[in-house]
Amino acid sequence: MHNRVQGTALTSAGNLLDPRQQRQGQWLLIAGGLLLGTVGVFVEEANQPPLLTVWFRCVFGALALLIWGIATGRTAELRVRGRSWWIVLATGGFMIINWALFFAAIPLTSIGIATIVFHIQPVWLIVYSAVVLHEAVPRRQQLATAAALGGLVLTTGLWSSNSTEASSGPDYLVGLLLCLGGSLCYAAVTILAKREKVVSSFAMAWWQCAVGVGALAWAPLIYGWPHQNSTWAWLAGLGILHTGLAYAILFAGITRLTLGRVAVLQYVYPLTAVLLDWVVYGRTLDTVQFVGVGLMAIALLGIRSR
């Protein structure tokens, strides 16, 4: 969803070079990254089945986005016509799968690892461009892609000196595969969204949530409704804070910045997730994993800034 915001807003970002606006944009993107970095904590504390968690995020997210759209006078954008429907439905489907895989991976790995591995998504876009679209990939991009994949291997912790049974067992490996699958779905959302020139980023985000509400309406009937008020609060936060509020903050920030600065500030999200994983749950990365994270960050920054 946030890649769709970026793709739309950056078309005019190059014209917004006022220093004051750029400072505002930086702080907004930092705030958005800090907010998104808490997603894993909300998922862990809610402690619900992944599909049920996704459904609640979609319900509360759709409500939050609708309120934001009414407040900003953008509800007319929600009207979808013609061939745009299939892209709206497809991106909604991929986003549902993406969230479900990510939420399922967190308890199997950790918040930090799941978030970092998830951010390998730009590599799949490079591969898609080269293999499917047959676009020429500059040598710098090829090296950056190889470096990002190498950093990913180090980040997993499978070859770390202090690797434990929990971080090398079958559940951990399944969690890593779920994250990679989620990143592929996220890449598919980005690819499809870039083909849609009529539906706005706001409408795309709202319809993604709406598709989730409809497609997973059976989830609470199968898994049951939460019994504790605290669980409802964590689930509501995923939709209101991490979907509605985060969209509004990121949209406002991205429209004030150039592509290069947006690429740098996007790493506030995974860094926040790693920090919170350590502060809240006592899970941290070792030296090898931190080297991998650094290598991924540098490589992906090069890919995003192309």
Task: Describe this protein's structure.
The chain is an all-alpha fold. The protein has one domain (2-304). The protein is built from 15 helices and no strands. It has helices spanning 2-9, 19-36, 39-46, 50-72, 84-105, 111-118, 121-131, 139-155, 170-195, 201-215, 219-223, 229-254, 259-265, 268-281, 287-304. Helix 2 (19-36) runs antiparallel to helix 12 (229-254) and helix 8 runs antiparallel to helix 15 (287-304). The longest helix has 26 residues, at 170-195. The chain is globular and about 45 Å long. The two termini are 21 Å apart. The model is unreliable at 2-16 (pLDDT under 50).
Short description:
It contains 15 helices and no strands. The chain is mainly alpha-helical and 306 residues long. The chain has one domain (2-304).
Give the helix/strand layout.
Layout: H1 2-9, H2 19-36, H3 39-46, H4 50-72, H5 84-105, H6 111-118, H7 121-131, H8 139-155, H9 170-195, H10 201-215, H11 219-223, H12 229-254, H13 259-265, H14 268-281, H15 287-304
The chain-level mean pLDDT equals 83
For the largest beta-sheet, the strand count, sense and barrel status come to: none
Low-confidence stretches: 2-16
Give the SSE string. Answer: HHHHHHHHHHHHHHH
The Rg value, from CA coordinates, equals 19 Å
Tally of alpha and pi helices: 15
Q: Overall 3D geometry?
A: globular
Share of residues in strands: under 5%
Structural class: mainly alpha
- Distance between termini? 21 Å
Task: Quickly count the domains.
Answer: 1
User: What's the β-strand tally?
Assistant: 0
